[in-house]
Amino acid sequence: MPALPEGETPPGDGALPVSAAEGAAERAFSVYLHVPFCRVRCGYCDFNTYVSSELGGGASAEHYAETIRREVDLAAGVLAAPELVDAGMPRRSVATVFVGGGTPTMLPPADLSAMLGAVRDTWGLADGAEVTTEANPDSVDADDLQALAAAGFTRVSFGMQSAVPSVLATLDRTHDPAKLPVVVRAARETGLEVSVDLIYGTPGESVDDWRASLEAAVAMEPDHISAYALVVEPGTKMAAQVRRGELPPPDDDDAARKYELADEVLTAAGYRWYEVSNFARVSATDAGADGPGRRLRHASRHNLAYWRGQDWWGFGPGAHSHVGGVRWWNLKHPRAYAHKLDHGLSPAAGREILDQDTRELERIMLGVRIAEGLDLRSDLADSGWVRRGRVLEELVSEGLVDAEYARAGRVVLTLRGRLLADAVVRALT
């Protein structure tokens, strides 16, 4: 698992500077709930996860919902601090909730319901709030999905990864791919929206394997499909296998071919990209579905909150948060995290207050990745940003940015631009 970033020491009570209240009324507030438990640890994964038998006390799965509630209580006090309220921090209902992991559905539905209940009781959920949980296909059944829908969940994201057994085996995924259509159908029957996550570029995966996975995903008619390129992260089992020569490293050209294939297959099936790795099914009620400003009803609003620089509080060990230009991250180990909360202290391990240059860099990095694009009109109107206008012209000439939208001062990536998004960011900064 990656090390936590460096940063300043956060206050023991988790208090935020009054600067965090600036502009808060214009920003949505979201919640991320991290569940660190997994049945097995997959060889490619570097997320902050633990086999539940490794843990005990307040960090155990049995007590986890109550531990989360204690951090929610602490957050409520932080956001309602008089100095923040006086500076303009409003009481905001929660626009989106995302329960990730790990495998959240390692916990029983009653515990996930209790965690969501803590959020609802504390801040309330906005009308039409999006509430998502991740799940593995073998970690839920129809009764579980019905219970989650009854508790207020609106969406489930299944970790599919691949439809090909040999690819799943390389990834150390243990589910039977034949189970996925069963749980997708069960989820839809409860009224839950459905997303499936795919990974391409696994060592040994052929282009035909990847096409089979895409076609299997499309055949289930989910509302949303994510397609992520495999990254071999340092410290993982897969990294050791690559280092020893047991597996070949991912190939950039192979990844590019597979991304182009994903775009082709998913677009033909009625999906549209709204972020480089994310595609949403176009519905009859979508407006502007083929250009910037598109509103895809099935896009993940929680993910968009990140890419649009909104506010979110991440609960759980290793979770990251961002409120008003203040970013912080929790202690990674569940026992250390729970120990802090047991003593009435914030579990934050470090934080940083973003300066204006960092905020601008992140605005570009995140804005470029989404289909609505990065709005540079105010920059281009400023005579001090002449260089950025020239850069935009060069990006158009290189086929990385759509010419029509560039003329209106907006950076919208072409398909080639999506493959080279990092190069576009570097050029604009």
UniProtKB/TrEMBL annotation:
Organism: Georgenia deserti
CDD domains for this protein: Radical_SAM
Keywords: 4Fe-4S, Chaperone, Cytoplasm, Heme, Iron, Iron-sulfur, Metal-binding, S-adenosyl-L-methionine
Pfam families assigned to the protein according to its UniProt record, in alphabetical order: Radical_SAM
InterPro entries in UniProt: Aldolase_TIM, Coproporphyrinogen-III_oxidase, Elp3/MiaA/NifB-like_rSAM, HemW-like, rSAM, rSAM_sf
Record keyword Chaperone present: yes
Tree of life domain: Bacteria
Family matches, as PROSITE patterns: RADICAL_SAM (PS51918)
Annotated protein name in UniProt: Heme chaperone HemW
Chain ranges of the Radical SAM core domain: 23-272
SMART domains in alphabetical order: Elp3
Subcellular locations according to the entry: Cytoplasm
Free-text function comment from the UniProt entry: Probably acts as a heme chaperone, transferring heme to an unknown acceptor. Binds one molecule of heme per monomer, possibly covalently. Binds 1 [4Fe-4S] cluster. The cluster is coordinated with 3 cysteines and an exchangeable S-adenosyl-L-methionine.
Family: Belongs to the anaerobic coproporphyrinogen-III oxidase family. HemW subfamily.
Gene that this sequence comes from: hemW
